[in-house]
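The instructor's notes for this session suggest beginning with a concrete chain rather than abstract definitions. Hand out the sequence below and ask the class to guess, before any prediction is shown, which regions might be ordered.
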Amino acid sequence: MGRLLAIDFGRRRCGIAVTDPLRIIASGLCTVPTAELADFLTRYVKSEQVDEIIVGQPLDMHGRPSESTRYLEPAIGRLRKLLPDITFRSYDERFTSVLAHRAMLDGGLGKMARRDKALVDEISATIILNDYLQSKQYQQ
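After discussion, reveal the predicted structure:
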């Protein structure tokens, strides 16, 4: 059984989270500049077995694709061609940044640490992956 990997996609950088090989725990892995995402994923899947990549899908408050989708879809299309043996799934990422900030506050991180947007992106990817693991979509 391979790992699941989640991406919180952004125009400048992407937060990355992965599960353990048994898919029990989701953990933040890193933040990667968006321009380097394809190279990072190629290297990562060569060193670790990854079965699925879960991509945070930006939706507006009404559940419709947000404007960010126009940047995301072409990038994910290129990744699908680059990694044809891996399944890509979209998963709702609404409120993950808010939840990430809340987790940082609850965890006692100082004000300067909470301003670290890369850390917010990594935590957001972890939230996306945790939510996916707990979802009915994954359980099926």
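Then share the key points. The beta strands are 3-8, 13-19, 26-33, 50-57, 87-92. The CA atoms of residues 36 and 114 lie 24 Å apart.
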